[in-house]
Amino acid sequence: MRLSQYFVPTLKETPAEAQIASHRLMLRAGLIRQTSAGIYAWLPLGLRVLRKIENIVREEQNAAGAIEVLMPTLQPADLWRQSGRYEAYGKEMLRITDRHDREMLYGPTNEEMITDLFRREIRTYRDLPRNLYHIQWKFRDEIRPRFGVMRGREFLMKDAYSFDLDFEGAKRSYRKMFLAYLRTFARMGLKAIPMRADSGAIGGDLSHEFVILADTGESAAFCHPDWMQADPLGERITSDEELSSFFGKYTALYAATDEKHVPGKAGIPEEQVVRARGIEVGHIFYFGAKYSEPLGAKVKGPDGAETTLEMGSYGIGVSRLVGAIIEAGHDGNGIVWPEPVAPFKVGLLNLKANDAHATGVVEDIYGKLQNAGVEVLLDDRDERPGAKFADMDLIGLPWQLVGGRGLEKGLVEVKCRKTGAREEISIESALRKLAG
Ligand code: P5A
Questions:
Q1: Ligand 1 centroid vs 54 CA: distance in angstroms?
Q2: Which of 9, 254, 394, 413 suits a disulfide with 334, CB 3.0-4.6 Å?
Q3: 386 lies in which domain range?
């Protein structure tokens, strides 16, 4: 992509409304713009990151055996009356009336709708277990939307729903998602800590939050010092027993969103004394028959008896992750993207955009990188070198390839955004390094 023909409206000034680094940087690097309180338009660079995160989430859900569907954003109020949540959800639910005076709502989550879809099609235990997920926009009329996409009103969520015949099956489904979540966040360069959590408005009695430690997070996390060092993905898990014991260890952790949860109270053991702030990027729930019972979602069991389905739901804040990844990776000059979610891998700077020979050489490098399948953003604008350096640091692509004076001798500078390390090497070596 050529910056001269793209749409990356960067800002030099710090926007006054943004209180935390990720929000400031998302505005300054031209990733998003607010259109109403807590509602954002995704500009090209932001959208590329959002799509990459979405795809990692999708790949790991598929690998864990979950099946993708797509449910609508608008839902009929009647379904929520059946579960008893229509009144209970209160003002956070955006309620809409259509032209025929039918009551609708913009979905804040999809437990009711998926249970309804599933109960209509499934008759026997032989069709279980199943886990269905979608990646869809949600709306919650948060009283205080803030921190940009971290607490938006409209936000993108991956939500999965598992259906099992019995409690043992439901626990297996829960564990599968638990592990898939650790893998998902690790692939984005994040260490997410699983913590026992309140199940809140979703209900049920077993729940874990996945929290990224950051001072600006809204969740207060308590955990034992040992767990901060834990490497859950490094543990080999080959049997159901190993999975159980591994899983058991992580239930020692606790996350809370309010101040009444302190060690020694509300089920938090005294010894969990490390207190930190974190960003909740995922939340999983086991809730048994909470929705299947009122909605009448049953199948015939092996003994021929009608059995109410056991369910769980599993959420990942896809749009929140964009902010969380920036909170975890930035410096004084801008964003520092982990390569798997970076909007482009390489930023190619032509510092001599007015020099025909230099431009020819840079264009050749650009073509070769593209042919090798490398995602590259070419700064071919007629701007001062200082402005180009500043914008490229702000945007935070993992690698910068700078074509300047050295081009005459066939040399370019390669800079690693994360470490700041630079080296001047031949064009061929640079291509090998970045296209390899
Ligand atoms: C789980 C999936 C649920 O809604 N139902 C379906 C369950 N859980 S949750 O914890 O309420 O939300 C799941 C994740 O969505 C993100 N999230 C948000 N992101 C941005 N802005 C918001 N206002 C917002 N609310 C929730 C969080 O990452 C949360 O873990």
A1: 15
A2: 394
A3: 344-435
